[in-house]
Predict the 3D structure of the following.
Amino acid sequence: MYISIDKAAEVLKGGGIVAIPTETVYGLAANALDEIAVSKVFAAKERPFFDPLIVHISELDELENLAVEIPKNARGLAEKFWPGPLTLVLPKRKNVPDLTTGGLQTVAVRMPKKQIARDIIKLAGFPLAAPSANMFQHLSPTSAEHVLEQLGGRIDGIVDGGVCEVGIESTVIGFEGETPVIYRPGAVTGEMIKDMGYREWGMGGGNPSPGLLDKHYSPGTPLFLGLPSEVPQNSGLLAFGELPANSAAFAKVLNLSERGDATEAAANLYRLLHELDSFGLNRIFAVILPKEGLGNAINDRLSRAGTAKI
Ligand code: TXA
Ligand code: MG
């Protein structure tokens, strides 16, 4: 199942699907311009066709082959944050299949920072459509083992590039004229682009990004956001920073970052959720992070992963 980058490029050229590492999460890649290859990605993930994929490139030049009418601010963001955890949603060119964009007239494009990812794109010779390499609505993978668990028998190979340094999915930004609109929070934060006068979509209702469903990124164990005043039997705690006074009442406690660092917490988020999910707990409680920097992106993922709020 684990294959080299040369083998991965060969499989992709033959219309196959391969999981590849990026700095955010592992992606399940296919030739973005080949509708049949892309359809295999939807099938393997059991992802609905209305949910569009991100197209990955290895050089800034490749953007012109995918998108038209690129706002000046989009170009500015690309120059500043690419390669990196930023996805830009732009009007698409005709050669990008409707299936790749979920029928939308826009295409989401990202240049990943992880060298292996860009090497594979170069070797393949075409842009790669790659959603996170997990079953639809489940936890995103931040290691090759996570991919193997969920998609092992369903795909043509996995390239093991170690753990993902950032650990949560890219920031997705669309445009209204020149105004950047953050559809999905990530490691490129609003604070970092405030000189452009960005806007944020609130959670839930009317989001223009079809994949931002309320339920997403979910472990099998019911997850609750916030701390219970009385801890039910066989509960797990996903903590951040100093432990709460009642932490001894939890059957398992994992800490996103003992020193309370949101960047470290993002890198650990999915790995620790996978781990908590493996203990056979009745419930997982996750703390809410301070609403600054990557804290917003982590709270966004946790609130969608949660089956209930308290
Ligand atoms: O970090 C990432 O973005 C990872 C790695 C593999 O690059 N990919 C990823 O893909 O998270 P996925 O498919 O799990 O999430 C893509 C998100 C979805 O919420 C989707 O709805 C949104 O991007 N999206 C894609 N194309 C769009 C478009 N044309 N307009 C609005 N939203 C779009
Ligand atoms: Mg995903």
About this structure: The first strand starts at residue 18 and ends at 20.
